[in-house]
Amino acid sequence: MSFERWFLIGFTIICIISLFKFVPKYKKRDAWVLFLFLQLITWPAGLFTVEQGWIEYPIQLLPQTNEYNKTSFSFEFFFFPVVAIFFSLYFPRRKNWKIILLYYVGIAGFFTILEVFLERYTALVKYKEWTWYWSFITVVISLVINDSCYKWFKKGFKPGTSE
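Above: the chain's sequence. Below: its structure in token form.
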């Protein structure tokens, strides 16, 4: 098995352990909502970028069985949604705008730096017409949309009601 597949397996295990360790029990429902909301964003966006030929994922964790879906299952459907869970659950909502901006830049920067590292030193990601700043911008936009949907979900949910 290649280094890239071992990396994906290891990173998946780390993400699963971090979910169990750092998502409080009373926030499990919120974590699922965040996870699914982000997948709703990343699936069409990932398909679009791959179909346009801007980015490629040559090595996948799961075998490539569908010629119509060449996005990265690991990145689009698991790693980034896990990052979004932690982003929204630990968001500094009552801080000033500078702290919030730093939070956005830090989380989006982390994910972008990870992707750039993987693009340069592995065969997991290959930029064609894509650059690191497009990754950064799309990560920020995705996090804004996802967190907005989460706030909307929380606003409508009243604990203790049967609806």
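The chain has one domain: 3-14+28-156.
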